[in-house]
Structure formats: C-alpha cells, structure tokens
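Design request, tokens follow.
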C-alpha cells in the first residue's frame, strides 16, 4: 500500500468501533466467544501446546491483516473507478 492508503486504512481501523452503523452487539458477542474459547484452551493445554497455539494465532493474525489490507485496497480502487 502507498502512504495515502496506509493512512486511510489505519484511520479506518482506529475508528471502526465508533461507527454508528457497526453492529456492536454482534461484535461484542463474537469477542466474548473468542475470549471464552481462549480461556478454555489455557486451562486445557500444556505450556508447550499453548506456545504452539500462540504461534498459530500470530500467523493467522498476520494473514488476516494482509487479507484485510488487500480487500481495503480493492475497495478503494473500485470506489475510485465508480467515481469516474
């Protein structure tokens, strides 16, 4: 992403939860579900297994960031094309 898109993307992420159109109930529900699942894993797994899960979560997080950034770039490009 160029500097402009990076700035726009960062701004969008930082202000995502303040958007009045966002379904905060749905977001909160999934966040709570994720937290409960993580707590259950922490109780059930050994420290070594938790390290493996953390490595996996980190890799997933990195992949999701790249996917979200690509989707954002495509959406901006489509918006520019439609505005012409």
């Amino acid at each position: 992403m160029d500097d402009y898109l990076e700035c726009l993307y960062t701004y969008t992420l930082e202000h995502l939860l303040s958007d009045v159109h966002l379904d905060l109930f749905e977001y909160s529900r999934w966040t709570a579900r994720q937290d409960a699942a993580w707590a259950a894993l922490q109780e059930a797994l050994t420290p070594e297994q938790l390290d493996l899960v953390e490595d996996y979560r980190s890799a997933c997080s990195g992949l999701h960031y790249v996917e979200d950034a690509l989707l954002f770039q495509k959406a901006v490009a489509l918006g520019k094309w439609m505005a012409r």
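Comment from the thread starter after seeing the answer: thanks! The helical segments are 3-14, 24-44, 47-83.
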